[in-house]
Specification:
The protein is an alpha/beta fold. Helices cover 53% and strands 13% of the residues. Bound molecules: NADPH dihydro-nicotinamide-adenine-dinucleotide phosphate and the ligand O=CC(=O)O.
Amino acid sequence: MNEVGFLGLGIMGKAMAMNLQNNGFNVTVWNRSQSKCDELVKHGISIGESPAAVIGKCKYTIAMLSDPEAALSVVFGKAGVLEEICNGKGYIDMSTVDAETSKKISEAIKSKGGCFLEAPVSGSKKPAEDGQLIILAAGEKALYDEMLPAFNVLGKKSYFLGLVGNGAKMKIVVNMIMGSMMNALSEGLELADRSGLDCHELLDVLDLGAIANPMFKLKGPAMIKNSYPPAFPLKHQQKDMRLALALGDQNAISMPVAAAANEAFKKARSMGFGDLDFSAVHESVRRYK
Ligand SMILES: NC(=O)C1=CN([C@@H]2O[C@H](COP(=O)(O)OP(=O)(O)OC[C@H]3O[C@@H](n4cnc5c(N)ncnc54)[C@H](OP(=O)(O)O)[C@@H]3O)[C@@H](O)[C@H]2O)C=CC1
Ligand SMILES: O=CC(=O)O
């Protein structure tokens, strides 16, 4: 397995496609905006003119797209995945979407004889560049086994979680927790600052105690400087909170903390911070001075 297709060259997709190419795979890419494909040609990566063209060329094709709408349109749209998927080909969607979207895609792929795996990832731009993602796969186990050489390049650990939908749900639950934690840090930094404390000392104290975590350590110093270079865009974190709240609705789980965090991310989006890092939710607290 060394010919792999890759659809979607955003922050994550570009890093993942490059990793595969640098580690012995021959990658063929497609992206809605052609300029992002052109940048990769100098690294030996080939370009397909549509999702269908990539599927036609490659036995295995990975997708890394922004949201459920994008994932569906690349599969069901004109010159989309469904036009060329067939017996003997595998489609692996690594985007963060809800379980219903994933199941819809799975059923369509299977109706054409293809194999499907959902495989969303935990870990951001840097883990994607370093091949240190956590892969949350579900769907056809045989395809999972065939994809392990690629997953071993992309990630530090892969899980097979069973039926399609379980990978999507696991990813959404993880990101719901992450989004709530980011809001707690934002409020904590603001409270420390406005009550006369040193925010760097707050981060030191947090880092020594029971709630130390890599996210606070990584994002905290930049947040103190009001700097939010996008690694995980805020608009995608808010999408994940929205999907988590919908999953909570389906299961009648009361989630007031997640609901409040979602409101803060929505506020930050309405303030124009959707394309910045999700830590920019800090601005929705800060600007209420
Ligand atoms: N960034 C991160 O830290 C992480 C992100 N994720 C998830 O991975 C996925 C990708 O994230 P990321 O790379 O950050 O996102 P980006 O916003 O950087 O990239 C999104 C990609 O989706 C494409 N796209 C958007 N809408 C459409 C559409 N209608 N049709 C076709 N293509 C479309 C974009 O194409 P174009 O270039 O033309 O706009 C681009 O290739 C998301 O689901 C996100 O939640 C998961 C883990 C970490
Ligand atoms: O989905 C985002 C991440 O950091 O994981």
